[in-house]
Amino acid sequence: MRSASVGFHCPVCVKEAGQQIITPRSLRFQPTATIALIALNVMAYFLQQSGGVTNDYLLFGPSVQANEYYRLVTSGFLHGSLIHIGFNMYLLWMLGPALEKAFGVGKYLLLYFGSLFGGAAAVMFFDWDQATLGASGAVLGLAGAMGAIYYARGFDIRQSPAFGLVVLNILLPLLIPRISFWGHLGGVVAGALTALALVWLPERTSMPAKLAVPAAAAVMVAFAALGVYGGEIG
Fold this sequence. Notes:
This protein is mostly helical. The protein contains twelve helices and two strands; from the N terminus they run ββαααααααααααα. Helices cover about 70% and strands about 0% of the residues. Helix 6 (about 80-105) packs parallel to helix 8 and helix 10 (about 180-200) packs antiparallel against helix 12. The protein starts with a strand and ends with a helix.
């Protein structure tokens, strides 16, 4: 990773963007999707603090079973403390812009929400009766996506700075019980699989490149369906 004015630049992700003509406008790249996601998380946190958002929006298996499927999404924008949201938004700002610039807004959001649903699905299957919240699954999914891109391009994933983040955040819940291990792990797995659909399948198989986005969208929908199904069988 190389230091940049906005977070870091992943050399492999930059390669994904292909050859580009540098113009003054391109030098002023603004990670609008990343900024919007951070803004939504911050707004949701302030609503929580003002009492405008209650536990009715947390991820909780029995409630999802009662057809409150919106919790699969809303829980990913809520946080339990200032430290909680601060750490998640810091990671999002460090990881998001490079991926957004390399993939474009549409593919980047597929990575983010695919990871979000992956974390929620894992919680629904393995931690069904525990109320959870936070953007950790989605943010760590971006780290998993970077690792998957390294793998798809033939690099050792251990060389990716994201590798340490993934390992740390998977182990952290084992040391701090209140942190959701399954939410973290599910996000990493989903982010990696979505990235592989976008990069590895079109580059390393005979799949046409135009099917990469539909394949990634199918991964996202599959994890969303697993979240719903996990709530149904909980």
